[in-house]
Amino acid sequence: MDPNARTMIELPNDFAENAVSKSADPISIRLYSGDKAVLNSRVTLRQHLFSFLLEGKKTVSYAQKSDTIDPSQSLILLAGNCLMSEKLAAENGNYRSILFFFDAGVLTDLFLKYSHLHEANRKPAAPQEPFIVFPKDPFIQNFLASLELMLASGEISPAMRQLKFEELMLHLAEKNPDLVANLQHAVRTTEEELDIRLTVEKNTDSPMTVEEMAFLCNMSLSTFKRRFTRIYGSSPSRWMLLKRMETAAGLLEKGNRKPSEIYHRVGYENLSSFIQSFKQVYGVTPGEFQSARLDV
User: Fold this and answer.
1) Fewer CB atoms inside 10 Å of the end CB: C or N, the chain?
2) Contacts 24+ apart (CB under 8 A), 211-218
3) Which tops the pLDDT comparison, 99 or 173?
4) Matching CATH topology for 3-186 and 192-296?
5) Per-residue pLDDT tens for 1-31?
């Protein structure tokens, strides 16, 4: 679908070829081109967007801010409503850009995986901006060249899209920290969720109790349990049990470590408690589980 064929544009959904594919992927990358100038298209961004202009000029207007960029610049736009205009390149009458969409969950996962980014930008100095213009340095130019090559070869796999997103964000965190701080500000509504996830997932295999995790998150035990259940769809104790036993099962399947050698690795202080928990999840003792896997 040509997203300029409608007065009201919803991105990235309107790039879908049919109604079945209307639900957007967490990360999507599109090479967009046009041969007609566009004036003040009404656009609803359902996801955040990196807009990398290749040819032409682009004007973006939010309620609080407006700016025009050329191919030496790029944009990061937060989800929301805006007006977009596109001017064709004087040299060849073309307009081209690479659009890199990502949803809020991907951003939260990034700050979870690279917690130093979260810690460095917990208190952004500047107010949140609806979009930020940033220059195309040599890294960005090479990054875009790699995307063009992949897009020319066909669909980019989800794993590769994730990798390219992380590559871009880690570069910007080093070279343009204000931009990353602005994105951190964009997930402030999920700040408590991020604190819980950081605390929990860093300590999955430690003997830390639910009460101690609640303390580290500056929450009462009841508040922590309620918010944990909303995030993970399970009680903290049940979720931690399953995660620890999943890790234990993986270690046992490798076959080179006995149950007595791994119980401390998954947060247990004694072997008997570990055996009891393992049997609760898998229905057999760790030793029986390991023997059955090795006999296959």
Assistant:
1) C
2) 217/192
3) 99
4) no
5) 444 444 679 999 888 654 344 457 999 999 9
Element (H, E) at 252: helix 236-254
For the chain, give every domain's residue range.
Answer: 3-186, 192-296
How far is the C-alpha of 1 from the C-alpha of 154, rounded, in Å?
Answer: 17
Question: Three-state DSSP class for 99?
Answer: strand
The superfamily (CATH) of domain 192-296 is Homeodomain-like (1.10.10.60)
Q: What is the pLDDT of residues 270-288, one digit of tens each?
A: 899 999 999 999 999 999 9
Render pLDDT for 200-239 as a digit per residue (tens, 0 to 9). Answer: 888 888 888 899 888 888 889 999 998 899 888 899 999 9
CATH class of residue range 3-186: mainly beta
For residues 24 and 103, the answer to whether their CB atoms sit within 8 Å is yes
Which whole-number Å values give the CA distances from 286 to 65, 107, 270, 274, in the listed order? 61, 38, 14, 9
Q: Provide the token pair at 60.
A: 């973006």
